[in-house]
Specification:
Two copies of one chain form a homodimer.
Chain A: E1 2-4, H1 7-16, E2 21-26, H2 32-44, E3 47-52, H3 72-82, E4 90-94, H4 98-101, E5 108-112, H5 119-123, H6 127-142, E6 146-150, H7 154-166, E7 172-176, H8 196-201, H9 204-217, H10 223-235, E8 240-249, E9 263-271, E10 274-282
Parallel strand pairs in A: 1-4, 2-3, 2-6, 3-4, 6-7
Antiparallel strand pairs in A: 8-9, 9-10
């Protein structure tokens, strides 16, 4: 395992890599969700690059940048256990600083339009501009053959897939299934903010999505009925405060009256001060 | 010489190239200025890719997109003469269509901020967003080691250099000197719009820049005095209508009170309906 920070060290180690490269972009504080992406990247590539960077430009002014959890030593231990010294595959961990990614005079932004105006984008202005900009930078700096993202962040996945096609990035975007606790809660670095009661209540996202999916599997295709079902379940949990529920086309993220083809059920819910998101794919 | 249009053909031919690749992005209707970029790319790389694409997103609503000159057959003849069949170097010409570059649903833009708000950017809203977006796409699709641009478009060069650094593109931006007619007029595809009287008058840009440079070489460092000298010369030419003259820092394009280090004299001037730009570097 090589750990590098500067762009010049990254460039040197990137040039030394023979064969395919899989990139797993992360903000650190790794959990099983991240590790499943790393394992998938390892299975599909000769080399794996994991970036660890808490990207300031994707946090809004009122969001949790300063208290976002960080523990590099723990992250490196988790990653090195996946790449024991005997491994013939190479792992590079890139841990740039804010000054490396956004030096004095920085002024370039990558923006995806329509897809970023809805759902998370409508609640978090500027968030996706930060995401697409940093991901474009990571793609260019690491030159991967494949890049791995979790379905947990469904809109992020849709936006990045669009960006990669629109800007002709010569790589494949691979979307991996959401990893969950035994009771259904989607893994997230933000789960650590939940107190005991909130943690129990947080299964309501999974229960709400499951109820709507069950309706769908029984033949329901009315988007409004599916959204209503998700709301009903959320309203049954006193500690949960719904921000939105949604039933959209999978690619365009346009809200659906009638579900046809691949669709996305998604939601954002506050448990106390902690904002959680989750989603299911239909069809 | 390989001529390809589709992205998949480009990808196939790009994968077949061994060794370094130099990219020369053009809008076609090639003149000696373009050919000097191609020659420089040929001297510095094993392979050369020339893109020919009149990029609609960098033209304003009132600009000359529909009448922009095009002559692909002539362009290909000029290029093939630089790469005779006996050449050991390979030339790829990429001629994508509007539909290939901006397919249905396209919605991603690359934007450089402060540098694009002044000079040409202030006169041509949206122009540089179109330029940076298409250049990012060309960089990604062709994966060059070096990319060649002419100093003639001084602000474009400053903006693209900034974008390449900010977005971590793994390539070198090479800036080549402006090519000129014997009487000093900078080569431009738009020169063909000039009638005989306008063509004669068009040397006024070169004369104006030369007069200011002469002052500079005599020791003048006051930015306003250099701008005044350029204006004076332009005002002596009845067929010329000045749009702006400028004396800025070379990198930041900030207008200078006092010239220190590398600076840029630049201007935009109408000859009849034809808008010409030109510039000199100081220091």
């Amino acid at each position: 395992m090589d750990v590098v920070s500067s762009l010049s060290d990254l460039k040197t180690v990137r040039l030394s890599l023979d064969g395919t490269v899989g990139l797993v972009p992360t903000m650190g504080y790794l959990h099983e969700g991240h590790l499943s992406l790393v394992s998938r990247a390892k299975a599909e590539n000769k080399n794996v690059i994991v970036s660890i960077f808490v990207n300031p430009t994707q946090f809004g002014a009122n969001e949790d940048l300063s208290k976002y959890p960080r523990d590099l030593e723990r992250d490196l231990n988790l990653l090195s256990s996946l790449f024991p010294p005997s491994s013939e595959q190479k792992l590079v961990v890139w841990t740039p600083s804010d000054e490396i990614m956004y030096p004095h005079g920085y002024q370039t932004w990558v923006e995806v339009e329509a897809l970023t105006k809805v759902l998370e984008g409508s609640m978090r202005p500027g968030h996706f501009r930060g995401v697409t900009t940093i991901v474009a930078k990571l793609f260019n700096a690491t030159q991967p053959d494949k890049a791995y993202f979790g379905q947990k962040d469904a809109q992020q996945v849709a936006v990045i897939r669009r960006m990669a096609v629109d800007l002709n990035f010569p790589l494949e975007v691979i979307v991996c299934p959401t990893q969950r606790e035994a009771d259904g809660l989607a893994l997230s670095s933000r789960n650590k903010y939940l107190n005991e009661a909130e943690r129990k209540a947080a299964t309501v996202l999974f229960r709400s999505l499951s109820a709507a999916k069950e309706l769908y599997e029984k033949g329901e295709r009315d988007g409004e009925n599916l959204r209503r079902k998700m709301k009903e379940v959320l309203e049954g949990e006193p500690l949960a405060q719904m921000q939105y529920v949604s039933c959209t086309d999978y690619d365009t993220l346009e809200e659906l009256d009638v579900v046809k083809g691949k669709a996305l059920l998604s939601m954002a819910v506050f448990l106390g001060k902690t904002r959680l998101i989750d989603n299911f794919i239909l069809g």
